[in-house]
Amino acid sequence: MRLTYLLLLLTFSTLFSCKTSQVPLQALPEKGMIKVAILYPNEEGKTFDMDYYEKTHMPMMANFLGKNLKFYEIDKGLAGRTANDKIPFIAIGYFYCYNMSEYNEAIAKNRTAIVNDIPKYTNIQPIVQISEIRYLSK
């Protein structure tokens, strides 16, 4: 009985402390935008400097993308399907952009700087997927 009350209390406190409602409206994707996902697979012997990625690489990329970039996100892998499973990706970066050709132009124009910066934070060959945002739930 005490365990049930404790679990209920924990559940409600988690729900009320959720900060989802504090996400600024300007940082929400829009239908039709492109979403660029850069995935860094978790493989034996691979390294990743999250601090450099957060403070140097991604801001550099945001600068290259300019006004075409609405916002970006960085995810740090914590677990796989279950808490005990190995994480499939050490990190995933996302860019939310308005226009695909402007994205491609910015990357092509700055390709050398981008390629030369990657070894400063990782020895992983990233996987890139570009998608169109088709549906947003409310």
Please state the overall shape, judged from the principal axes of the Cα atoms: globular
Order of helices and strands: HEHEEHHE
Largest sheet: 4 strands, antiparallel
Mean pLDDT: 86
Number of strands: 4
Rg measurement, Å: 18 Å
**Count of DSSP H/I helices:** 4
Please list the strands of the largest sheet in the order they lie side by side. 2-3-1-4
The helicity comes to 25-40%
Q: Which segments are poorly predicted (pLDDT under 50) over 5 or more consecutive residues?
A: 2-23
Q: Which strand-content bin applies to the residues? A: 15-25%
Which labels suit this protein?
4-stranded antiparallel sheet; disordered N terminus; 138 residues; globular; alpha+beta
Walk me through this protein's architecture.
The protein has 138 residues and is of the alpha+beta class. Helix content is 36%, strand content 22%. The protein has helices at residues 2-17, 50-65, 100-109, 111-117; strands spanning 34-41, 69-76, 89-97, 127-132. A 4-stranded antiparallel sheet has the order 2-3-1-4, with helices on one face. The longest helix has 16 residues, at 2-17.
Write the layout of secondary structure elements.
Layout: H1 2-17, E1 34-41, H2 50-65, E2 69-76, E3 89-97, H3 100-109, H4 111-117, E4 127-132
Antiparallel strand pairs: 1-3, 1-4, 2-3
Write a brief structural summary:
The protein is of the alpha+beta class. It has 4 helices and 4 strands.
